[in-house]
Design goal:
The protein is an alpha/beta fold. Strands 6-5-1-7-8-9-10-11 form an eight-stranded mixed sheet, sandwiched between helices. Helix 2 crosses helix 6. The longest helix is centred in the N-terminal third of the chain and has 18 residues.
Amino acid sequence: MIVDQAATTLERQARACANLAADRYADLLLRAAGDVRAGGPCAEVLAGYLDAPADAAVPLRLLGGVHALVLTGRAPELARFYPSAGGRQEPGDADDAWAAFRAVVAAEHDTLRGWLRRPPQTNEVGRANLLVAGLLYALGETGRRPVRLAELGASAGLNLRADRFRIEGPDFAWGSTGSPVRLPDAWRGGAPDWLRAAAEAHPEVTVVERLGCDVTPLDPTSADGALALRAYVWPEHTARAARLAGALELARRLPARVAPVGAADFLAGLDPRPGTLTVVWHSVMRQYVPAEEWARVTGELDRLAATADADAPVAYLFFEPDPVDGRHCQLRARINAGPQRVLAEAHPHGLPAWTP
């Protein structure tokens, strides 16, 4: 029963990868599920994790560890099938790709066990498309003023630099044209009127603080941190990898602090500040937070909302899976103690967005 649970989790992640245009990973995960059921190398590596809950994202940990080996040149036979390492994805090569993947899993047992012990860190830069939209909405509601960014589950803090990204669409553009991070094709069917108006009113944003928290933060300026971030970008998604490379470059220039604490403790030390807009945001991290911890987070968010006012406003923005249709995510916003509003929707990686 435990074996079947693990195989089912791999198959579920395979479907998610297929829905997000990652056919290579989808195929490898389906074959890995069969290998687990057969007691092969994947079952041996995953021993002790076979009954892990789905939100532990064990399949992504395994894939990330293998991808890191590819990116560091330790899996040259598999690299031939990974576009992120200069390889190709060709019709009819699935059997050979699986054989190479299975061989890596068998040969690198100890290394991959180490990756299974670390939580996935997909610091997806594309989600800044929604976060910036929420930020501009908040400024449109509260007026021009300096901004304090505070991110929950910030990972490496790449999106704490989102105000320095360039976002583009057929009828919308915002941010420096010289930014190393470009988010093209940002909106499907055109940007909403409120966003175009807010972007025109706020062509630049002054960010005076960049603070975040994560239970296991990564340092994007370190070799190990950068490798982990690159490893969790799926090898077929070369555009995502290019955005990540730009964000890593920006992180080396622009400091941001990510504290190694939980979200509730982080928020407990945060208060509204007169003359500034305090923005608390998070994206696709809620699923990793235990219910008891999240109850404390909710209490702290309510405290911030209750103590905010017109001179010290607080915006709460989040981009998380739709509670009804988990295949895509919603951007929601609340200003001070006002009502929560759904502003936009997008696939989990953030591009493109659309109006609900």
